[in-house]
Each structure stands twice: as C-alpha cells, then as structure tokens.
C-alpha cells in the first residue's frame, strides 16, 4: 500500500488549496467559507515517480466541544492513521492558541510531522515564517498554495519523511 499524508490545520488556512498544489490538479474543494470541506477527502498523488495518498481533513469545524477540541481530535486521528502529518498554518496569522494546542498533540506523534507555513505570497510574510519554530515541530516550510511557490521543496520533504 502507498504511504499516506494527512493534512491538518484550522479552517481557512489553505489546506485544500495546498492539497491541489501537491496533486498538481484542481480537485480538492476550495471555498472562501471556512469549513467547507466536510469530510476527510482522499487523493492519489505522484511526485518524483513515487505514489502516495493525501488526506485533506475538513472535520475541524467547531463542534459541541469547540474548535480546539475538534482540532486536537483530528490531529490524534491523523497521527494514528497516516504515515506522515502535514500541519498547515496561515503564516500571515502565525500560531494561534489552536495551533499551540494541536502542536502539543502532534509533538507526541510517532509519525513524522511537517509544518507548512502557507500564504507566504510576499517577502513581508516570508520574514515571519521563523516564528513558527515555536511550535516545536521542526523547520516551518514556506509555501504559497495560491502561487505554488515552495510546493516542490515541500513534496521533497514529504517523500523523505515517509
Ligand atoms: P481550508 O479551509 O484550510 O481548506 O482552506 P482553503 O484551501 O479552502 O482556502 C481558504 C482561503 O484561503 C481561500 O480563499 C483561498 O483562496 C485562500 N488561500 C489559500 N492559500 C492561499 C495562499 O497561499 N495565499 C493567499 N493569499 N490565500 C490563500
Ligand atoms: Mg478545505
């Protein structure tokens, strides 16, 4: 079976946009409305001749227990079922208390965790990426799902992590 990458993060950080970039085609559902991806959606990806599966998680909408609890639950599920986890953060916003909570969960992960600093569309945002080292999950990788910049380096890192 091919390795599985689970993509997790708050609503609206750009998970589905980035997943589209990783797939090289426009398939994952992207909407301006937070929480539009209702379920975990699975895609086949191919990079450097290696096949893998990408799971775009959308179950992070606030439930009865609130956003932070559903975020933590999604991260738990991701690290138990995937071969690698990609935490997507909006670099323009930085790490919120939700990211801090999920990072706390993911620091216990046996599966490797990568951090994508998304929405790095300009130099000013690029200068903020280093602040995400504070999550304790290693080097944050700058990407722009919108422009596609950084996605090749991210894909290389994903394949190395498997
Ligand atoms: P998700 O809820 O995490 O899956 O986020 P989406 O992929 O649906 O994106 C949410 C919003 O962020 C949409 O309006 C996207 O166009 C926008 N977005 C995604 N990636 C980028 C990016 O790299 N730069 C900018 N400026 N906007 C982005
Ligand atoms: Mg989505």
TrEMBL record:
<feature type="binding site">
    <location>
        <begin position="118"/>
        <end position="121"/>
    </location>
    <ligand>
        <name>GTP 1</name>
    </ligand>
</feature>
<feature type="domain" description="EngA-type G">
    <location>
        <begin position="3"/>
        <end position="162"/>
    </location>
</feature>
<protein>
    <recommendedName>
        <fullName>GTPase Der</fullName>
    </recommendedName>
</protein>
<comment type="subunit">
    <text>Associates with the 50S ribosomal subunit.</text>
</comment>
<feature type="binding site">
    <location>
        <begin position="56"/>
        <end position="60"/>
    </location>
    <ligand>
        <name>GTP 1</name>
    </ligand>
</feature>
<comment type="similarity">
    <text>Belongs to the TRAFAC class TrmE-Era-EngA-EngB-Septin-like GTPase superfamily. EngA (Der) GTPase family.</text>
</comment>
<feature type="binding site">
    <location>
        <begin position="9"/>
        <end position="16"/>
    </location>
    <ligand>
        <name>GTP 1</name>
    </ligand>
</feature>
<comment type="function">
    <text>GTPase that plays an essential role in the late steps of ribosome biogenesis.</text>
</comment>
